Every structure is written in structure tokens, then in C-alpha cells.
Amino acid sequence: QVQVAESGGGSVEAGGSLRLSCEVSGLDYPTYCMAWYRQAPGKEREGFATIDSDGRTNYDDSVKGRFTISQSNGKNSVALQMNNLKPDDTAMYYCAAGDSRTICNYSPHEIVTWAFGYWGQGTQVTVSS
């Protein structure tokens, strides 16, 4: 059974930094795609960063240069370093795992949520101005 769990959310002032972590267990596939999504109140859940089993990363323009996705222990842990946070970054942040590397071939915001079979419960990030 695959389990995904995020941690590290919180409240920060604009310009500050946060680091989110995603722990994944039970994902027994040789190739995979991991992603971070976020959902602001009244808006759809949108992807903004991906990393595949070869370590290739991709970012939405809205976070490029400010956020960094990385992995450690192979597919067991995915982190998101967020710098220069803005009030528009306020949202619930979700980690997603998929059992195919090809999912990551698309831009993060183009990947439909159902492409990922495994999701965490989310962690709240609030950025005040």
C-alpha cells in the first residue's frame, strides 16, 4: 500500500522561506514521477513542480527561480524549498506520486490530477503581506 505524507507547512511573511517534505512509502516501481500541487481557496488544484526517477525537474513559471524540488533516498522523500514567498503562494500544498516517468514529460500545470494515483493529505502554507 502506497502512503504519501506532507509536512513542513506554516505561516511566514512575504519574502520568507519554507521547506516542505513529502515522505512516500510502498511505491515499488522502477520509474516514477513526483509532483507538488497547490490549491488556493476557490481555485482548482494546480501542479507547479515535478521530478522524475532520473532526477529531471520541471517548474511552472509562477515558481521558477523561487522554488526547488529535490529528492533524497530515491523515491522515498521529496522536498520543496520555497524562497521569496509571496501572498499569492498561500494555498494547501499537496504531494503526488505516479508510477510512470512519462507523466513528468508534461508541464506541471498541464498534468491532470488523475494522472497521479497517490496523494497526501496536504499541508497549509500561508504567506502574509
Q: What radius of gyration results from the CA coordinates? A: 13 Å
Broad shape = globular
**Helical run tally:** 0
Q: What would you call the structural class?
A: mainly beta
How many E strands?
11
Portion in beta strands: over 45%
Main sheet specs: 7 strands, mixed
Average pLDDT reading: 94
N to C succession of SSEs:
EEEEEEEEEEE
Structural commentary:
With 129 residues, the chain is mainly β. Helix content is 0%, strand content 48%. It contains no helices and eleven strands. The strands form two sheets. Strands 2, 4, 5, 6, 9, 10 and 11 form a seven-stranded mixed sheet that branches.
Task: Detail the topology: elements first, then pairings.
Blueprint: E1 3-7, E2 10-13, E3 18-25, E4 33-39, E5 46-52, E6 57-59, E7 67-72, E8 77-82, E9 91-98, E10 118-119, E11 123-128
Parallel strand pairs: 2-11
Antiparallel strand pairs: 1-3, 3-8, 4-5, 4-9, 5-6, 7-8, 9-10, 9-11
